[in-house]
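Practice problem: predict the structure.
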Amino acid sequence: MIGYARVSTREQDTASQRAAMAAAGVTKIVEEKRSGWAERPALRALLVDLQPGDVLCVYKVDRLARSLIDLIAILGDVSEAGAEFRSLTEPIETTTSVGRLMVHVLGAFAQFEREVIRERCEAGRQAARERGVKFGRKTKLKDQEVRELSASGLTLTEASRAAGVSSTTMRRAGNRLGLEFVPGARGKGAPAYRAGGRA
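Answer:
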């Protein structure tokens, strides 16, 4: 049995969790002092090192997972390693039939939670579209700026540098406005883009 004990701040300690695990026969305990919402390298390393026959043990599920979806993902990692899971204070484990039933119930709730989140996100996007919000990458150049550069006599490279964008961005902006780059155009009055086809 391998234990995982976590507290959120360095001011807290894992003494009570370690004591409960020792009483349950846990022989190895991995400790971590990090918020549940932060990256947890000790937990990640523990999951990677799990071997078939190991039992990952925690005092409470909230010491292991930040959400129901996160819990199901972690239990999936445990299962793939051929290991088992056990919470000391809750009927959530994979070593008994009742515990496995509870895990399946939690999995169904996690799937429901994912679908609710997805539906809320789509509803939010739809409401934003109705308000006129456009999704996707924003245009880096304003149309008027492109037109002014096209009449400045600069080459594509020079115009791109002046605007602080890549040549590809400048070319696409010109194409969007029906302005085509004239290669090597220099000198006053020579357009960087020309409406209608190439010069």
